[in-house]
Amino acid sequence: MKHKTVFSCQQCGHQSPKWLGRCPDCAQWNTLVEEALPAAKTKGRAPGPAGRPQRLQEVQAAEEDRIRCGIGEFDRVLGGGVVPGSLTLIGGDPGIGKSTLLLQGVDRLAAAGLALYVTGEESTRQVKLRGERLGACAENLYLLAETSLEAILERVKELNPAFLVIDSIQTVFTAALESAPGSVSQVRECAGRLMQLAKGEGVPTFLVGHVTKDGAIAGPRMLEHMVDTVLYFEGDPGHPYRILRAVKNRFGSTNEIGVFEMQEKGLREVSNPSELFLAERPEGAAGSSVVSSLEGSRPILVELQALVSGSSFGTPRRTAMGIDHNRVSLLVAVLEKKVGLSLLSQDIFVNVAGGVRLDEPAVDLGVLAALASSHLNRPVPPRTLLFGEVGLAGEVRAVSRPELRVKEAARLGFDRCLLPAGNLKSIEPPPAMELVGVRSVEQALDGLLD
Prior knowledge:
By secondary structure, the protein is α/β, with parallel strands linked by helices. The protein contains 12 helices and 21 strands. A hairpin with a 5-residue loop joins strand 1 and strand 2. Helix 9 (364-376) crosses helix 12. The longest helix has 18 residues, at 184-201. It is globular, with a radius of gyration of 26 Å. The relative contact order is 0.09.
């Protein structure tokens, strides 16, 4: 009997009955691979007792007690701890520390119940060596070097673990499919079976996912829809700091971040990242300003650096690291048009110190101050904080949660803060701190650079 086949895109999961050189969905070339279709069968578990519909009022549900793993920054990003029966996907660049983070976390979770760490890329001896370096010595932590999904499920049935880690989902395969491990169909099928295990048995499961050269998790996009939480582990290779960011979380906020520092003995929590990012800031140097960015419920103070110099080419350069390039171009145009600074013929470089990435518009005022300071060669006062969104008309707009930003600045010793006038009336000034409300970019720069 001839098996039916389909051509699946290895980037996005699009399926076609015939081979195509270019995927019509993601527009990538030479990504369609022929795969055999599995035999039709009924899969899944009943959503309710006996598979019958229930009234919403009849469903018995209780607030699940979260399980804290003991790593405060990890618990913060998860929403307060691990939820029983949750399925969490962690992605990141190679060597960023995904396996290190999970091994440290599951070692502490093993104090609350038996934990099984399944490795498909390393041997148990290699994991043991890394565990000794990290200090992982939990008695209830079991290791399994296996890539067959059926064998993994059999061992899970024998051990009945309270926590499960799969490192990584791209190495796991099922014998029900003929395609190679890591293909779209294998990743989708294996993730679906593991989801049934997590939901049916209430076992919190962590999946490690490879990323493509574009930074997205490899495999079908459906993988991110299937899991409960998607975490990205980010970091600049030139800095020891790592940021754990949630892009999807059914049990908590997606705005929280966790900050870690990579050391010889593993990842160390950074409970006060503002002090860390400002530790080496030069005082009295032109082109430097301090801004406050809100990540979930945590305000973080970081240093923005700008360099404006004459261009020797017909087209001046615009380089931005850690901040959106288009946003910087927009703010340069505002300075040119509304303030009168001649910047269109200048090379402009903007950098966020410490390898942090800022996506919040509240840092606009700090970017403008750093650019003007570098161009005029006048330093911003060292103990002054800036935040505020800037519009195309040159106005400074109010931002959210200004009281948290001001309190964090006062705790770190700042004595002056330039903020939108619309936020001024809702804040009680901290002791020994001057709050200056501004309505326009020109007014802010006049009061800042004199």
